[in-house]
Amino acid sequence: QSKIVLDSLKFMEDDSMKNMMDYVQEFGKDTFEERPFSEIDALVLTELGYSPLEEIVSSDMSGKEFSTMEEIAHYLGENAERLLRDNPMMITQERVDLTQEIGRAKRYQSLKFFGMKSEVDSDITKQFAALTVEISPNMRIVIYRGTDETLIGWKEDFMMTYSPIIPAHKDAKEYLEQQAKVFDGKILLSGHSKGGNLALYAAAAQEKEVQSRLGKIFCFDSPGLHRSILETEGYQAVVPLAMRYIPQDALVGLLLESEIPYVIVKSNAFAALQHSALTWEIENGQFVTMDHLTKNSQLNDQTFKKWTEEVSDEELELFWDVFFELLFTIGLDTINDVFGKFMHYVQEFFKAAGQMDEEKRELLTRVALLLLQTRFNVWRDSISFADTFNVEFPSWDDILTRIHWKKEGVSIKYQASQENEEIREYYQQRHEQKKHEEK
Predict the structure, then answer these.
(1) Element (H, E) at 307
(2) Comparing C-alpha atoms, which of 156, 151, 153 is closest to residue 326?
(3) Which residues contact 210 (CB under 8 A, 6 or more apart)?
(4) Are strands 262-265 and 282-283 parallel, antiparallel or unpaired?
(5) Mean per-residue pLDDT, 124-152
(6) Residue 12's pLDDT is what?
(7) Secondary structure (3-state) at 69
(8) 329/353 Cα distance (integer angstroms)
(9) Burial class for 296, CB neighbours closer than 10 Å (0-12, 13-18, 19+)
(10) Cα dihedral across residues 37, 43, 48, 49: positive or negative
(11) Strands 242-247 and 139-144
């Protein structure tokens, strides 16, 4: 069902828009000497990084063993049927087509791809992947992959709501350190979504000598970092190098904290589908930009920031642990498992929730409801005509006050126990004390 929904929304995209595919077709004949490496080229290579390059690109960091763009395009073309079948989330027909177009373009023929590292570790909740591309003998770009299809990768993303550093951050830092040891030229960094977050953290965590050799850092619709990292000398040193791009209905790119100004790129996709960089408009070799974010994007940003302010880090950690515990319990390991079975897993989720430990269930319910309540209140406060027309909107409590989990589903009957309220107040006090100490 989820795939049907995604496919049905494609009609909302403008077929006449030009994207990175058109860029490759239009400027693929120009070498980097004729047309310098740009942010669009960085985006093209970053998008390529979502392909299963582990199957062909060497892990050698020095670049002595490498793959060419032509070899990569040939391999992915030969294996497209298998890849499209086995991993429909990551390997889409658009990505396959883009890879073939890049492989035919003169512009990318001299590139060398190497240093492919990829690891998913369920024990420490880590999903990490990166590779290096040599643009010229004196310049390389490190590409950090965003979130893949694994639930481990998605869980690690949500860890950023309460933890300053996630396991993939450490790998990202080490990867850049290793590349800097074997190469003494300029190093660019790039990443989409979580990948951009990793690129920025890796740069901020380097010694000054390495930072002095860094070029631009391209962050494509990427979350920021924890506020404690923004205060570090390393972060402040790389802020001038960072380039931040988000679509007009951005959600992911506004999460967490950032001091880097963003460029709003026009996308003709619908809502969350704008996160895909393949929907971003490009004209004459440049992004088509907009002046303002959508109202929906602004309200979602306000919602998330208020929600994470009201919930302590300890509670957020417990909430996400319980939420993903349920997903693993019902047999989900990757997002691909949901394709064609969405409603089945929704039903299984509620069944499992009804059978879980009461304290966990209550925590999950309360924190999830707080998110919905926050979103409702932010929306209600944004309505400007209510006073003019004497409209009185109901409060959240008027709409939903109690929820009761059942073994076969959910009915509207929730009320937090006194014990759970005391736990919430305890965490909230600790959260307020922590914010006070940080100030």
Answers:
(1) helix 295-310
(2) 151
(3) 176, 177, 180
(4) unpaired
(5) 97
(6) 43
(7) helix
(8) 10
(9) middle
(10) positive
(11) unpaired
